[in-house]
Prior knowledge:
This protein has 3 helices and 5 strands; from the N terminus they run ααβββββα. It has 192 residues and is an alpha+beta fold. The protein folds into 2 domains: 1-65; 75-185. It has a 5-stranded antiparallel beta sheet, with helices on one face.
Amino acid sequence: MEENLEQKSENYSDISNNTSNSNSEQIKETKSEKVLNINEKNLNSQNNSDSKVEKKDGNDTPPKTIPEAKKELPVEKKPFQEFINIHLIPSIKEEINQRGFEIKNINLKNTNRPIAGDKCWVVNCEIKDTCTFWLSFEKEDISSLKSISLSKPNQKPSIIESFLIDEKRITLKLIISRVLQRLNGQKLIGVN
């Protein structure tokens, strides 16, 4: 029995030694693992911060901004011939047609101004069975000196009048309204 006790105590001591060895090894391993884990976390955090920095450095494009809508030029700021042919002439046609009259012919030419005879830009408009008018621009610029002449059908104009000389800002609507005002003033397309 003593032998058994001795063996048992040896076994216990072996077991306790093994256990303490394994526990100490486990503790060492656990400490080592903790150190490794901490080191790995530090490395990962450094890598993550490095990669964040790299992403910022590598991404040179600024944040997306909403582009401002480009404001279109007012029609009066467009080139002279574009203004006349695309905006003024169609608007005059529309206004006269709305009043029940028909335009037989309307065009822009660089030709001699009626009566004066000097060369300038002239919008010639013939309203069927009513009248003809000539709106003249001294230069290829809507702000240049302007004149207007009127005549009854199949007649030559006898008077040339200044047109919009007091206006500082010339607009499409202003030109059209004053042309209509002149035609109304002569009782050609309506009554005053």
